[in-house]
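Pilot study result, target chain (102 residues):
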Amino acid sequence: MVGTDERPQTVHDFGGFAPALERIRYPAPGAPGVGQRALELLAQAGLPASASGCHGLDHGAWVPLVHMFPQADVPVFQVSIQTSLGAPHHLQLGAALAPSCR
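Predicted structure:
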């Protein structure tokens, strides 16, 4: 899944932590154009992916971002990882997305 939200919501997909963490919001703008470009690059590489305009940013994304960009003023989008597919898949994923960094 590739995030294409204009305004991704802060997703609290965890439990058992301090209640204060549930109150954190990270209202960064989305980057739907970059998300669409990522989808194109993944398709060109033969990697199946689909757009998600409603998933938001899970804690794997917003926790580091809240420390790196506390003003939430950097556009962001999220690409889901597939832990069951292992490192070779994710290296292929990174290689497919590399042109978007140039």
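One observation from the pilot: The domain at 2-101 is CATH 3.40.830.10 (Protocatechuate 4,5-dioxygenase; Chain B). A full batch analysis is planned for the follow-on phase.
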